[in-house]
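User: Predict the complex with adenosine-5'-triphosphate.
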Amino acid sequence: MSKVQIRNLGKIFDSAKPVTALENVSLDVKDNEFVTLVGASGCGKSTLLRILGGLEYRSSGELVCEGQPVVGPGAERAMVFQHYSLYPWLTVLENIRFSRKLKAKRGNLSSSEVEAAAGRADALLQLIGLSHLAHAYPNQLSGGQQQRVAIARALMSKPSILLMDEPFGALDAQTREVMHDLVLHVQRIEKTTIVFVTHDVEEAIYLGQRVVLMAPRPGRIDTIYDVPLPAAREQDMKHAPEFLAMKKRILARIRDTSGMSTDSELLERLNLQAAAA
Ligand SMILES: Nc1ncnc2c1ncn2[C@@H]1O[C@H](COP(=O)(O)OP(=O)(O)OP(=O)(O)O)[C@@H](O)[C@H]1O
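Assistant: Here is the predicted structure with adenosine-5'-triphosphate placed in the model:
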């Protein structure tokens, strides 16, 4: 069954000069599927994710999550962004528990639910390997550690859909690899459906069961690739011929659809102009 159904979705930003950020986008994301979105800058990846998260209105089309039309943010959908946005005045554990605490304060949680929530926060801390830093503050953590806390915080309300916008964009290559395996592990045990935006084609193939390639002007879906790798990913798979062939194909298609010129004649002209200046 589809967890997310996107039908003929469009988005026009009504600025002085209207921008068609998305046109006629249709996509089904299955239960427990991991879908990655890639594409040239400005093709509407973040806009699509924000619409899925209910943070942005669509201009046209339909969007259904778990059988319900999306009209705003919802507890079944959680978002993780590139910038960790932790509360600096709260400890790691308090950051993770934050949303539950708010609910409890508002009287929306029974005492047994509060207890269960405390247990879940501890379990999430263990899962992300940061139990020893439970009482540290965000400024005492590395970027990778902060992003692990942000992921745990997003998972705290047990969302069935996790929307991730370049979550590892600011991390170094080694930390990213650790984060990739962590997020795959989380998805396996929590059975979360994940839609993940990235600029990094290797990351998109390693994580995704399908890679959705978008193209700009107007933002649209260009090609959907089924990733031909076993479900249980291992870092070595990045060197497999089918992985490398897919990476090459997707990179070439991004270049073709980006609208940016790599034309040698144009570069030559720039060189001549620079020399004449
Ligand atoms: N608030 C806004 N007002 C006007 N135009 C916007 C707004 N947000 C995004 N856009 C435009 O919509 C288009 C899609 O933007 P979006 O950020 O979704 O692309 P993206 O694929 O995520 O880009 P990148 O990979 O560079 O982050 C771009 O042309 C952008 O300039």
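The chain has two domains: 33-53+70-76+162-277, 84-158.
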